[in-house]
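Record type: ASSEMBLY
Status: queued
Input:
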Amino acid sequence: MTKRKMYIRMITASLIRRRSRMLVALLAIMIGAAILSGLVTIYYDVPRQMGAQFRSYGANMLFTATNDNFTKEDVEAAKAVIASSELVGLAPYRYETVRINDRPILAAGTDMEGAQKTSPFWAVSGTWPSSTEEIMVGKVVAQTFNLHTGDRVTLSYAPETAKAGESGKGDTDSTASAEDEYVLDNTKDFKVTGVLDTGGNEEEYVYISLDDMEELVGGESHLDACELSVSATGDKLSKYESAINEAVPALQARLVKRVTQSEDTVLSKLQALVLLVTIVVLALTMICVATTMTAVVAERRKEIGLRKALGATDKSIIGEFMGEGLLLGGVGGLLGAILGFIFAQMVSMNVFNSSISFRFLLLPITIIVSIFVTGLASLIPIKSATNVDPALVLKGE
Amino acid sequence: MSLLELKNVSKIYGSLHALDKVNMKVEEGEWLAIMGPSGSGKSTMMNIIGCMDKPTEGEVLLEGVDIAKENNKNLTTIRRDKIGLIFQQFHLVSYLTALENVMMAQYYHSLPDEKEALEALDRVGLKDRAKHLPSQLSGGEQQRVCVARALINYPKLILADEPTGNLDEANEAIVVDLFRRLHEDGTTLIVVTHDPEVAEVAQRTLVLRDGRIDRETINENFTGKIRFD
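Status: finished
Output:
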């Protein structure tokens, strides 16, 4: 038998046959490793998890026209710059002044599905329009015109400066009059599907689909603004902003600073907190393992004395105890990494309501860190083991 | 040249002379018993001969080399290569089997050899108990494992400290018989004991008192066999 085989046989025998003792040390390492790997998993997953949560705050990027306006093609070109997996929602807007009962009202033509994603906090009583000829009205508009869900309303479009005969195309009746201050040009009937309550300016608008807007207003198709909700951190958003501005000169991309900056602040503080807790756990684990190893060495003084009496060198004693410690660290690290993932998964499910993916790289890292921490924590007690006087064994003390 | 020679060896702790100018010789193949009351200096002498302590004064020549002048590292090497130790309290590693306890001594000495370790256990009549843990062995069996461990590396000298102190008469006889066989094989034995019956079996007995050799007895009727009254 080689010395190495005997060495492995001795340290495994020590761990297996003294399992009640070693379980305490293993438990300390395992719990430390579990919390450590769990926290690291959360640390790296927090931006993704929080990013998804932050998207409920609404759009964090805005496109406006560099000159007068921009087109859908410009938006498509800009959209191509952003990774599709990170694009949560995109809502193009075209604003026009329309009339209800001859009173001017601001109308926003948009993609309703996109608007729901970029403005998830909008409270709608009723439903969002799902097809053409459906309209969502702001709460102020609803109160002004006494509109309710299910009512029908007619929008008309007539620019004040327009003269009869200059209007856009439309299949609605034209009732223009030369004495009128405005030309009642195109009209279109809509069914009110929902009333929007945001507490903000949005309540003063009516919302129709882009197709309806173009049909009502006529003229060339164009957009005035576009809201985007992108699941990315501040740095990446800034990169997207620059890339879009460079790639699509017709529009100007801007970050909604109040959203992106507060996201970054919350994220960095949360990550710093998790990092701090991780460091504290690491320190506590080291203290725990060092205490356990000190107890292990103390209760095995006679054995150490015996080994020295049989001719073991200090190097052998350190090697054997360190071997036990490192093996414990490895096993504890492996079990801890698995437990840590379960811990992180539970935290994620309870706090963020979403699952976490297992990071395989974390497994070897946790094992290596556990071995390193156990080794470091064992160093002082094991070093003290070499000071045991073998004569103690002969004296029977 | 004697295997072991102590020349004016003293061990002084403050004002206490644990050993006081002791002179003695042990020849190769000799079986020596050391007796004495508690505090007479037996343990101190054992520690010095066993390379686990150094005298304050004097020379301790083991095969002509003064081990009193060696550093701790060299003392460990000498102890490992030349001395086999047997203890009153057996001192087996609790989580290693009888076989592994014997192999551990091989491990520190040279290379572990399972076959040779089994043969050593066979010599002490414990081959069939090789896979048992110390807790599964009787006191006598544990001491026999200790003997097997002490002889596995063919030491020049076996030092036994009260080897029968924790054994009943039957096991005492078995262990003493093992010593006789070792002696017949040419092994040098130094046995520290309180038990006159064990001391009488040796070829020569030294009686220590107050750190000095008080009396020396030669066993004219040496047989190596124990006689119980």
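Annotation: Residues 60-255 of chain A form one domain.
Annotation: Residues 162-179 of chain A have pLDDT under 50 and may be disordered.
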